[in-house]
Amino acid sequence: ASGTDGAGGADLVARDRRAVWHPYAAASHDGPLFAVASAAGVRLTLTDGRELIDGMSSWWAAIHGYRHPVLDEAVRTQLGSMSHVMFGGLTHEPAVRLAETLVAITPEPLRRVFLCDSGSVAVEVAIKMALQYWTGRGRPERTRLLTIRRGYHGDTSGAMSVCDPDAGMHHLFSQLLPRHLFAPAPRCAYDEPCEDADVAEFERLFARHAHEVAAVILEPVVQGTGAMSFYAPGWLARVRELCDHHGVLLIADEIAVGFGRSGELFGCDHAGISPDIMCVGKALTGGYLSMAATLCTDEVAAGVSDSPAGAFMHGPTFMANPLASAVANASVELLLSSPWRDRVAEISAGLAAGLAPAAELAGVADVRVLGAIGVIETRDPVDMAVIQPLLVELGVWVRPFGRLVYTMPPFITSPADVATLTDAMVEAVARTT
Ligand code: PLP
């Protein structure tokens, strides 16, 4: 069931199966696998010539679609001067410009930018900043992180340690992972008010452990990969208040939701709050190259400098890669100069209308949409070996996970393509649940 029998696709899949390891898969997995020959606009072209409308933006990243002329040109131009130089003791214009832009567009107190190479690393950097901050402020016992269930923050050790403890990572890697604190995920949905009862458990846990907590870490408003759910901005605002009350740092992981996906530029903007540390990635480069960033306030930066090490102890080889910085600058400029709010609103309306019929299906527990994110939650886990080829047959690239059949298409997706996407999702769920 590979669908790759033309133009070398079957051969490619066979070679892949012998040598390649895929994400969250056994080394010798025989699940559906499709060979892509090229990608342009919102379409992926398979090696057998079939075109799929991309509903995933390559995991939240390709907000402008593929092979955007402006982004292609940014990489080409940057190649003409330098592709990479180390960032220890050297700097360059693309990185400086990117840092200035990120400071300008994120909430005001965030003034310092650490450029790194992936979302998971940005989360590691955020955690290390928080811990070093507290050693600098004479409170080295503040080493625990407080987070919520159903979160996802990446696959490196620090990031895994704050992922949902039931997601599998914790018992597999318990020898590696420190014991952090997990409150229940917020019960109040995006459009509901946040009542005292909704934060009560979080508040209790916080009050009991605040003296040992370095930071609260959360995905603001949209819990991505772990839940695909949208919670009340009022809940986030309450958490900010609690952090202020207990003198604890707030880390906002905007890696999935940042750069307009939720209908606001950042998830924090829904609640009008600013975190002490913010992580961005994925759509930062429009999905062109791997780059992420961790921003912090002057106070966090000063605390880190006051720590016994003095310096912040992190320095990836590919930090501030000039090609990635250049395409990130181009991607952010392209986004900000586009009518992205209108586009996201239009996609949102299309997703809501198109996915609504799924709510009538017996196998469906919930249908929800926020910004350019649409989710069908099924009652039982979907069978990937069945639903994935079916979605491809229906002409779309959507990658379900567990009980979640979801889409976050590029912002350039037309209403007609959104309709094709949602029709295919509803049909695939109807035929497989
Ligand atoms: N944080 C969030 C909210 C994410 O959704 C992800 C990736 O899905 C990460 C962190 C990890 O990013 P990366 O896969 O670039 O390491």
UniProtKB/TrEMBL annotation:
Gly residues compositional bias, start-end = 1-9
Give the source's domain of life in one word: Bacteria
Q: Where N6-(pyridoxal phosphate)lysine occurs, residue numbers? A: K282
Keyword terms, alphabetized: Aminotransferase, Biotin biosynthesis, Cytoplasm, Pyridoxal phosphate, S-adenosyl-L-methionine, Transferase
SUPFAM superfamilies in the record? PLP-dependent transferases
- Residue positions binding pyridoxal 5'-phosphate: G119, S120, D253, P316, T317
Task: Kindly state one GO CC term assigned in the UniProt record.
Answer: cytoplasm
User: E.C. number, please?
Assistant: 2.6.1.62
Q: Which Gene3D superfamilies match?
A: Aspartate Aminotransferase, domain 1, Type I PLP-dependent aspartate aminotransferase-like (Major domain)
Extract the GO molecular function terms from the UniProt entry.
adenosylmethionine-8-amino-7-oxononanoate transaminase activity; pyridoxal phosphate binding
> Which pathway?
Cofactor biosynthesis; biotin biosynthesis; 7,8-diaminononanoate from 8-amino-7-oxononanoate (SAM route): step 1/1
Q: What class of enzyme is it?
A: transferase
Q: Which residues are noted in the entry as substrate-binding? A: W59, Y152, K282, G315, R399
Cellular localisation: Cytoplasm
Q: Which PANTHER family match?
A: ADENOSYLMETHIONINE-8-AMINO-7-OXONONANOATE AMINOTRANSFERASE
According to its UniProt entry, what is the function of this protein? Catalyzes the transfer of the alpha-amino group from S-adenosyl-L-methionine (SAM) to 7-keto-8-aminopelargonic acid (KAPA) to form 7,8-diaminopelargonic acid (DAPA). It is the only aminotransferase known to utilize SAM as an amino donor.
What name does UniProt use for this protein?
Adenosylmethionine-8-amino-7-oxononanoate aminotransferase
| Provenance organism | Frankia alni (strain DSM 45986 / CECT 9034 / ACN14a)
